[in-house]
Amino acid sequence: MNCAHKILSPEAFPRWRQQWRDAGRRLAVTNGCFDLLHAGHVTYLEAARNHADVLLVGVNSDAAVRELKGPGRPVNPEADRALVVAALESVTGVFIFRERDAVPFLQMARPDIYVKGGDYTLETINQDERRFIESIGGEIILLAHVPGKSTTGLLKKLAT
To answer: What CATH number did the domain enclosing 17 receive?
Structure first.
């Protein structure tokens, strides 16, 4: 098995999306840094996949992670983070996106379902992302946060 084929290039992405649409499959999309993969991530991605036939994970580029998390992040480079996420059985495809927010990625993916973690509410997610998903008739699902599981927590533990 070679999980690297799940990592989609910008050129391959439209064809990949169209194949699932043509097959009548429902696409769930989520996104994040996925810097140090942990049980919280795995639980979250499995739950996201349970809401659709196909799960596409957008992975923030290294530059976007630095903007979002600060100069010490990411710990792992984007290609490594994408490969680790792609290795998960629950993940159908992975796309590295360059922008700080996911709007351009969501516009390409046009998901049926947009999944976010339980640390968000409909009011606190990026409102441009929310408006786009709602404009295409997509559903937004907020999954419960896994208590005590976070990359920030892991990094603090490693620093001590």
So the answer is: 3.40.50.620
The 113-117 sheet, strands edge to edge: 93-97, 54-60, 27-32, 113-117, 139-143
Predicted local distance difference test score (pLDDT) of residue 146: 66
Strands in 14-160 per DSSP E: 27-32, 54-60, 93-97, 113-117, 139-143
Domain span holding position 131: 3-53+60-94+103-159
CA–CA gap between residue 150 and residue 160 (Å, rounded): 16
Determine how β-strand 113-117 pairs with β-strand 139-143: parallel
Residue 138 CA, distance from chain mean position: 16
Residue-level pLDDT at 91: 98
Nearest of 133, 148, 137 to residue 30 by alpha carbon: 133
pLDDT in tens, 28-63: 999 999 988 888 889 999 999 999 999 999 999 999
Q: Please tell me which residue, 151 or 54, carries the higher pLDDT value.
A: 54
Task: Classify residue 8 by its DSSP letter.
Answer: P
- Which pTM was predicted? 0.90
Distance CA 98, CA 81 (A): 14
Q: Are 20 and 27 in contact (CB under 8 A)?
A: yes
